[in-house]
Amino acid sequence: MQPGFNELPSLNALRVFEVVTRHLNFRLAAEELGVTQGAVAQHIRGLEASLGMKLFERLPRTLTLTSAGAGYAVSIRQAFELIDEATRTLKPEPNHLTLSVTPTFASRWMLPRLPAFTAAWPDIDLRVLASERLVRFHHEGVDLAVRYGRPPFGSGVEVTLLFSQQVLAVASPALLAQLGDPQQDEHCQRYPLLHDGHHLWPAFLAFMFPQKSLQHQHHLRFNQTALALEAAISGQGIALTSPHFVQNDLASGRLVPAFSRVMTVDAGWYLVAPQHPRRQAPVAAVRQWLIDQVNQDI
């Protein structure tokens, strides 16, 4: 006779517990679960009562797991991952794939190539998620990611370099005609510098003018490269970017190189995937397609 599970706590309470262990905050857990903060607190109190022990220490602004709670959290998370895997095996969706990329990679590199992807893989339902932060693949339903930086990108993932970061300065041809050659330092200081989240202008100026220290007065700052590039296209200044992100703009003449030299940075754009993907065949297909597209750029 198979053993029963009469001593199991409420599965709803265990689900709430798993979410709270990730946020260590009742309010954030409630937002993820779509319930009230009071309901979350009630589930945790009930779970602690049924187990006869405290799982969390309540601090003024946060929570912390007790030693018993920390060990229990690992086991419960593993149990939910097994349930999730069993359910996906029972009802597989092999052609659905979520690709997480940075906003600039999405708008400047990925979107122009989506028609080619659809033509090559019409049976794959590709969902592109634009986000700067690192993802938790299994918890967030992400199958593959493209991230900028340097490895490692965490444990349990496989990393493949798409392309190294080279820094090209670009501007509109009309602005260059108006303000003169920025490779001459007296002209360079006339140009507004369009900054993004990578903060590469100090290093680029030192690279271009190693014997001088230029004190620029004109700056515009954006949190994404894509926004800085749009400002450059409209003639607002010089932006720094990877050549991969401005191929169409250079070909059409919307942008031109502002300097003849390109600076290499010790970082790159990487494909990041879990070592054991949930949808192995679509992940392999999309991964190879991305690599092939980058190779065509060379």
UniProtKB/TrEMBL annotation:
<dbReference type="InterPro" id="IPR000847">
    <property type="entry name" value="LysR_HTH_N"/>
</dbReference>
<dbReference type="GO" id="GO:0003700">
    <property type="term" value="F:DNA-binding transcription factor activity"/>
</dbReference>
<dbReference type="GO" id="GO:0043565">
    <property type="term" value="F:sequence-specific DNA binding"/>
</dbReference>
<feature type="domain" description="HTH lysR-type">
    <location>
        <begin position="9"/>
        <end position="66"/>
    </location>
</feature>
<dbReference type="Pfam" id="PF00126">
    <property type="entry name" value="HTH_1"/>
</dbReference>
<comment type="similarity">
    <text>Belongs to the LysR transcriptional regulatory family.</text>
</comment>
<dbReference type="InterPro" id="IPR036390">
    <property type="entry name" value="WH_DNA-bd_sf"/>
</dbReference>
<protein>
    <submittedName>
        <fullName>LysR family transcriptional regulator</fullName>
    </submittedName>
</protein>
<keyword id="KW-0804">Transcription</keyword>
<dbReference type="Pfam" id="PF03466">
    <property type="entry name" value="LysR_substrate"/>
</dbReference>
<dbReference type="GO" id="GO:0006351">
    <property type="term" value="P:DNA-templated transcription"/>
</dbReference>
<dbReference type="InterPro" id="IPR005119">
    <property type="entry name" value="LysR_subst-bd"/>
</dbReference>
<keyword id="KW-0805">Transcription regulation</keyword>
<dbReference type="InterPro" id="IPR058163">
    <property type="entry name" value="LysR-type_TF_proteobact-type"/>
</dbReference>
<keyword id="KW-0238">DNA-binding</keyword>
<dbReference type="InterPro" id="IPR036388">
    <property type="entry name" value="WH-like_DNA-bd_sf"/>
</dbReference>
